[in-house]
Amino acid sequence: MALVKYNDNSISAISSAGQIAQGSLVPIKTLTASGSASLSFVDGSNDVVLDSTYPIYKFEFINCHPATNTVKFQFNMSTDGGSNYNVTKTTTTFYAIHDNVGSSNLAYDTGSDLAQDTGDAVLNTVTGNANSSSCSGSMMIFNPSSSTFVKHFISQTHTTRGDSDGTIYNWFGAGYGNTTSAVNGIKFNFASGNIDSGTIKLYGIKDS
Fold first, then answer.
1. SS3 for 71-123, per residue?
2. Bridge partner residues of 26 (DSSP)
3. The domain that contains 77 carries what CATH number?
4. Per the structure, how many domains does the chain have?
5. The domain containing residue 89 runs over which residues?
6. What is d(CA 165, CA 98) in angstroms, rounded to the nearest whole number?
7. pLDDT tens-digit profile of 140-153?
8. By the 8 A CB rule, do 134 and 198 touch?
9. How far apart are the C-alpha atoms of 67 and 77, rounded to whole Å?
10. Which residues, 6+ apart, have CB-to-CB distance to 108 below 8 Å?
11. Residue 85's beta-bridge partner residues?
């Protein structure tokens, strides 16, 4: 690194100012759907890293479009390298809703939470299959390789229902996988029908 001081009030010729990337996102894997039943990220498969390399992993959902109308977008976890996606979970979800005629609501979604259940965890419930409709958002999972703690996750998605009133949902979810085994696989899918199109990106977040 070269620093040049000039007239006591400026510097120039800085070739590096430290590694800000210490806490930044590290791209790991991008999967793109095309009439896909699901998209799965399994540690050690197809260049996927989902282990103790990073303390936090982040998934980004970009315009995930279902083949079936108004369906749940959801995920599940695996502890056996993707052979089974059935980790016991407790979750909570709520949403803000607004349409193009001004109607709005903020509500807890009792039909989408889990209480020590191995079923899929809901990221949102009403993504439409109109050409203009899709789901985008993100989810973080914390220390999935821990052999001590349960596996916490937090999600936020935005989706359009695709009906005539242009309803939008901002969906918030959180919960934990009740296992002290390493989670080494995560699968995303719609509750009914294929993922017609869309992209999911996996990142690792470096420790500070």
1. EEEEEEEECCCCCCCCCCEEEEEEEEEECCCCCEEEEECCCCCCCCECCCEEE
2. 204
3. 2.60.120
4. 1
5. 24-205
6. 9
7. 999 999 999 999 99
8. yes
9. 23
10. 92, 93, 94
11. none
Q: Write down the pTM of the prediction.
A: 0.87
pLDDT band at 208 (very low <50, low <70, confident <90, very high): low
Q: What is the mean pLDDT of the chain?
A: 89
More confident residue, 100 or 111: 111
* Number of neighbouring beta carbons within 10 Å of residue 141: 21
Position 4 scores a pLDDT of 42
H or E element in which residue 57 lies: strand 56-66
Domain assignment present for residue 7? The answer is no
Asked if 74 and 123 count as a contact pair (C-beta separation under 8 A), the reply is yes
SS3 70: coil
Q: Which two tokens stand for residue 126?
A: 């009403």
Copy the structure tokens of residue 55: 């303390």
Whether the per-residue pLDDT at 178 is higher than 60: the answer is yes
